[in-house]
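Aim 2 progress update. The chain analyzed this quarter is reproduced below.
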Amino acid sequence: MEASYYIFADSRASFAMASIAAFAFVMTGVIIIKVYFNEWEGYNRSERWGMVAKVVSPMAIGIAIFIGSYRNSKYYDRIWGYGKITYGTTIKINKPHRGQPSVEYRFTINNKVYTSSIGYYYEGGYIDSIKAPLGRYRVIYNRKDPTESVMDFKIPEEEK
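Predicted structure tokens:
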């Protein structure tokens, strides 16, 4: 699994960056609180609600970023901690007009077929080099819960 370590290292780096962004959003909310509440008395009730919305918005965004990133990080930690390797087959690549592309794949464990998808960022058109359908790549799955898996597109089956 060492060859696929980059997947898990990327997850940890993403969590660190998202944590910094979340902290920045929350601190922006704190700064806004400090500025607005010093001048709180000079505003009527409806203006105060507008101020509260301006304070809550960046803080809520920051908290949402942190929670989403934390859950993703824990997902990858579980796969890393209980990981086993098999090979799976790509089904199709979904390229939405906006947003992150994803690759659907399937793999079999103990005669049970699992289907999953993994989001993948464009890295200089790298997603275009993934063979789909019927590309065979390494899948790392959580042996305690095979529904948690990640496909390693850098290691096709031919290289095993």
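The mean pLDDT is 79. Strands lie at 83-94, 102-109, 112-119, 136-142, 145-156. These observations will guide the mutagenesis experiments scheduled for the next reporting period.
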